Amino acid sequence: MGRFIFISTREHDLAASDEVRGVLAASGLPTDALRVIRLDREPLGEIAALGLEHCPGVILGGSPFNTSEDPILKSDLQLRCESDLSRLLDVLVHDDFPFLGACYGVGTLGTHQGALIDRRYGEPVGTSHIRLTTQGQSDPLLTGLPTEFDAFVGHKEAVSRLPSTAILLAESTACPVQMFRVKTNLYATQFHPELDPQGLAQRILIYRDAGYFPPHEAQRLHDEALSARVQWPALVLGNFVQRYGPSV
Fold it and tell me: Where do the TM regions start and end (predicted)?
């Protein structure tokens, strides 16, 4: 069986590399079982050339990009990444191909399916208390998770309205769409299943001037991240790998 594909849109090298570390740790994948594609460095190219027929599944990491941003304010890089991901999702959704998008996946898969993405339900950097819906409690990617758990979040935009093609799997009081599924095999989470306390603490320092929080709060948020007890979300990535790559 071929390698899982992980797609990153982070320009900051330390953030990009630590995200890969988090994905490997949470999923249990060995390094040689994950093919990393940095969209910030080069275009995706022809979808047919990706070799999806040999790939168990595609994972999309988080991003400083916001899909709901006014197109006039988007950089050329963001516009190119969005175009590449839209072309990829055309194929993945058509084929019901295994896909898991973390945080930025909500904006990309949601936009592709016609969800309303705006800034109504953004959440500050830190933890959010997640609740599984009835459908979520029986979904294979959420096997082993309790019906309520804490997860790391930090996002400016979120889903305000899901399309009829999506099934809500998890929610929270502050953000009503924390996870959804399209068809049988395409998933997106608003929370970060790949983040551990050290990863979030590092990301807080990297993005301290990116508008997620006042810069003077960075140290406090960093310290709170290191002391947080977040353990369950990693199972989402582990379940994804076990479901679609059982031989790994």
Answer: none
* Element containing residue 66 per DSSP (H, E): none
Helix (H) or strand (E) holding 228: none
Question: How much is the pLDDT for 2?
Answer: 84
C-alpha–C-alpha distance, residues 157 and 111, integer Å:
12
The dihedral built from the CA positions of residue 135, 137, 141 and 142, taken in this order, carries a sign that is positive
* Model confidence pLDDT, tens digit, residues 83-138: 999 999 999 999 999 999 999 999 999 999 999 999 999 999 999 999 999 999 99
How far the first Cα of the chain sits from its last, in Å, is 8
Q: What angle do CA 140, 141, 147 make, to 5 degrees?
A: 90
pLDDT band at 248 (very low <50, low <70, confident <90, very high): very low
Strand pairing category for 34-38 and 4-8? parallel
CA separation for the pair 217, 245 (Å, rounded): 41
Q: Classify domain 4-244 at the CATH superfamily level.
A: Class I glutamine amidotransferase (GATase) domain (3.40.50.880)
Q: Model-level pTM?
A: 0.96
Coil, helix or strand for 205?
helix
- Ranges of each domain in the chain: 4-244
**Cβ within 8 Å of residue 138, ≥6 positions away:** none
Matching residue, tokens 């295994």? 98
Average pLDDT over residues 53-77: 96
Sequence-distant (6+) residues with CB within 8 A of 134 are none
| pLDDT score for 247 | 52
What Cα–Cα distance (Å) separates residue 116 from each residue in 87, 107, 128, 133, 151?
19, 9, 21, 20, 23
Query: Are the C-beta atoms of residues 114 and 142 closer than 8 Å to each other?
Result: no
